[in-house]
Amino acid sequence: MEFVNVDVRRARFEAIAPVVIDAVRRYLARRTDAATADDVLSETLMVCWRRLDEMPAEHLPWAYGVARYCLANAERGRRRQARLTARIARLDPPPEAVAGPAPAGPDLTAVLAEMRPEDAELLRLWAWEDLTPEQIGVVLGVSGNAAAIRLHRAKQKLRKLIERAGHEESTEGSRP
Q1: Per-residue pLDDT reduced to its tens digit, 93-125
Q2: How remote is the C-alpha of 29 from its chain's centroid?
Q3: Domains of the chain (ranges plus CATH)?
Q4: Which has the closest alpha carbon to 20: 4, 43, 36, 3?
């Protein structure tokens, strides 16, 4: 018996949906950007499906009301996001890009690319993110002691690769 009810419900929704979709899409297009309109239309249709039994015979004005509330929610979310972005920019502004001197020695990016990805990530977490071995352990899901040991080994590998790369650069122009 429940299958009949679902089929009847689906048939009613499928009969109403094309009219609602076209009308609500136009309604939203006049009020917001295309991406937000698509998101709000989807949300409106979900509400219409969930509350199909509450939908009156004149379904279009009711659907406009649902779309209006969904659009208001989307706009509140967008305003919250804009306030949060502005607050983050005030509290932690991005650093100014300043051209520095040309690096002397081997290219660190190339040297890191030669390392095992796990070792390179350890070094990035330590140097770029300024994490302690204990914090690195949390990121990697290992103990702080294990992270410290791995970091020490990764630094040794990096040192050797830099020395090798520096040696290759210094002998590149000389004759054998």
Answers
A1: 777 766 666 656 677 778 888 899 889 888 888
A2: 26
A3: 2-91 (1.10.1740.10), 108-171 (1.10.10.10)
A4: 43
